[in-house]
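Exercise 4. Each item below gives a protein and its sequence. For each, produce the structure-token representation.

Item: DUF11 domain-containing protein (Streptomyces cavourensis).
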Amino acid sequence: MGLTRRGLLMPLSAAAAMAATMTVLVAAAVPEAAASPETRREAPADRATSVALAAPAAEAEPVVDAAPAAGAVEAAPDVPAAPDVPAAAASAADLAHHGYVSAWGDHVAIRIRSENLGPSDVAASTVRLRFSEPLAVRQELPHGCLRSGRATVLCETGGLRFRGGARQTALDLRLADRHDEVVVRLDTVWNGGARDADRTNDAHEVLAPATGDAYAF
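Answer:
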């Protein structure tokens, strides 16, 4: 074919030279590609160490006292005891009842004048009338009066102000039988809780003969 043995060898030598030249060029262009596997594995560790050294250390945060556990009971502060308050003294009032009693046959007429001589006002008061003889079953009692047994009548005199005027009470009662005389006992059974030091002017006992005359108390 016109080719000698030498002609066949020349192209092979040139090819080998060209291959060697290309190997050198590739190694120079990619230096890391020729590095050994051990070298590639050690590189990240070196970079991590340099980063760790460059990063500033985190500042320590102050420790805050922990909140008390739920359900914990704190001791209550000592509270001084309230001072004893003395009980209020009862008010003083002097009630007075005056009037007259008149009796005839089986009838008894009573007139009462009630007043407060002070010094305190009285919100309500009641006067009691007790008779020595039983009263008739049927009676016409004034407003504010009621029977309290066979021979007793209670009458309210209402509130009595100090120097506020007198209250008038008029009763016309019938006895169960005719009598020559009758004894009437009158006193205060309620004065609103006031203290009355003078009981001589609100408690009376009157003997009234059946003559129709008025006997004062």
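Check: Residues 1-17, 21-58 have pLDDT under 50 and may be disordered.
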